[in-house]
Every structure is written in structure tokens, then in C-alpha cells.
Amino acid sequence: MVYMSQAYLYNFEGRNSFIAEEAMEKLYENLNLQIDEGEIVGIKVHMGEYGNRTFLRPQNVKPIVDIVKNRGGTPVVFDTTTLYNKRRNNALDYHDVALEHGYTHEALGAHVLIADGIRGYDGACVKIDGGILKEVEVASAVFDMDSLIVLSHFKGHNLTGFGGAIKNLGMGCVTKQGKAAQHKVLSPEVMEEKCVGCGTCVDICAYGASHIEEEVARIDKERCVGCLDCLSCPEGAIRFPLDKRDEFQERMADAACAVKSLFDDDRICFFNFLTDVTAYCDCLGVYMQPLIPDVGILASHDPVTIDKASLDIVCKKGGKDIFYAHHKMYGEVQLEAAESLGMGSVGYELVEI
């Protein structure tokens, strides 16, 4: 008998209006999340890069905050710093971005936390069985959370095909070291025939991996973490290995498995927002036109199921190649890898509420 997980869909179609509080409460009622009086409940979000306009809005996060508080829990809304060197690279600057995007205690009724410390290196290793990575450095504050609710804006991604719950766990809940363990496989190469030795890559690299030698850029593979900031080369002389994206997805699934292993099944759940579905991640600090009209919100205890259901719904609305057209990849590798690690099932039952 094939195991089938449940994914619950609050569909926007056929509704004259959408009330976030009503939608989240109805979805939550179908989940069996354990919250005891006074326990700390982490609410994982991506608060959007500076300049982005399609990130998950605070007003869609507050209903979950209220649900947790009404059940006696103490909610904390959190994210971690980025590997790349922009506005969210450290906790202090990220807090500024959070404020600009409306993520405040006043708006949410909960504290906002950058979970991996000021510079993004505060964490501890979690060992896992199987996969490529044998241990992953998870953000320190995650260990202090009794339950975890993962809120993900489902969208396309140039490295993973799409980003949802698995990516929010594997990339969003770990330290810079945990991110580098995944990204390192994407360490870029210099096309010497295009390089003019301008030094842009040297100036932008936060890890000291780029240098100029004999008027040509070189990348020190020992120092390189694969953040891909150097792809901003004005001559287009730097590229990353496209054929390594499958392995990157496998490593991301390993990291997601490490985070999920910290919580019992009744202590973790997932919500995917199929709204403002864009071709690229909210890490891009630009406005992006959504690819399809808003669909609804999904909820599940299973990160594999919720991502598979989200992908199926988006592809049904926008065509099976909706993300492939932009990234020349489908992204199912992360689903297969996560399932093989015992994180969940690609077989599912969709229940509309």
C-alpha cells in the first residue's frame, strides 16, 4: 500500500473575498500541531530582500502568530542571514530590512529574530543518515524552539527550479556554514577569454576568494563558498556549473532533513502561499510580475507533500514548463531526495476546505 500524506488547500477561486485570519484558522484546524502552555513556537519566514515586493506579507503571518498565542504558545518570527553579501548578510542590517518590510513587533504581536546570530555563524551541527552531507550546522535559536511552523512563499528559483517548504527548511534554518556546505558545489569558474581583469569580483567577494593574477581573475576554491555574488561580473566572464544544480538540490534536502529531525512530527507543520508566484526567489531585490493569478494557501505536516502539491497546482495553472522556461530545470530532484531521506511522501491526497 502506497502511503499518502494530506495537503489541505484553501482555494481562493470561487470566493468573493479572502480573509487571512479565516483561511489560516481553517487550515490550522486540520493539523495536529502540539503546542503546550508557555512553549516557544518558531514561525519561519523569508522577509524579502530589500527592494523585493512579492515576499510574504506580515499581515499574512500575524494570523499564525495569533493562533499560537490563543493556544498558549509564545511565538517568535524568524529567519537567518544570507550567504551572499547584500542587505540581509548580517542580523543588524536584516533587522533594518525587516522594519522596512513591516516586520515589527507592533504589526505582528511577536518578536522578530535573526536566528543565526549577528554575523550568521551561531549554530550547532546536526548529524544525519544518508544523503551527501553527514552533518549540517543549524541556526542556534532553532534548538530553543519547542515547535516549528514554516511559512513559505512558493515561487521559482534559478538553482532549484522552485522554492517552497524544503528550501525554507534547508537553506533558511541554517548558519552560513550550513549554507556554504550546500552552495560550495556551485563554486563558479572564470572564462579567461572574456575576463578583462577589472577586479569587480574581487571587490564584491566577502570571503576573499577572488583575486587578480596576470590580469585575469582567479577563484580560490578553498575560500569560495559558492555565494555567486561574482556572477555580477560586468563582462559576463564568470559562470557557475549548471550541471551541479541537481547535487545542490540533494544537499539542500540533506540540510532540510537535519532541521526537521529536531522536531517530532506533531511539532512541525508547513504552510505554502501560492500567491504572487514569481519566476525567481524573494532574494532578488526587484519587482517581479507574478506568473499566474493567486491560487490559495496549502497546509500539511509533510514538507515533501506540500511542495509536490504546490508544484502540481502551479503547473496546472501555468503549464508544466512554467519554471523550466526560465531556469531550464524542473526541480523534482529535491522532492526525490527528501523522500529518500524519509522526510515525507510525493504521493498525497489533496483536501479542499
UniProtKB/TrEMBL annotation:
One term of GO molecular function: metal ion binding
Keywords from the named record: 4Fe-4S, Iron, Iron-sulfur, Metal-binding
Classification via Pfam families: DUF362
4Fe-4S ferredoxin-type domain: residues covered: 186-215, 217-243
Protein name: DUF362 domain-containing protein
Species this protein is from: Candidatus Methanolliviera hydrocarbonicum
Organism lineage string: Archaea, Methanobacteriati, Methanobacteriota, Candidatus Methanoliparia, Candidatus Methanoliparales
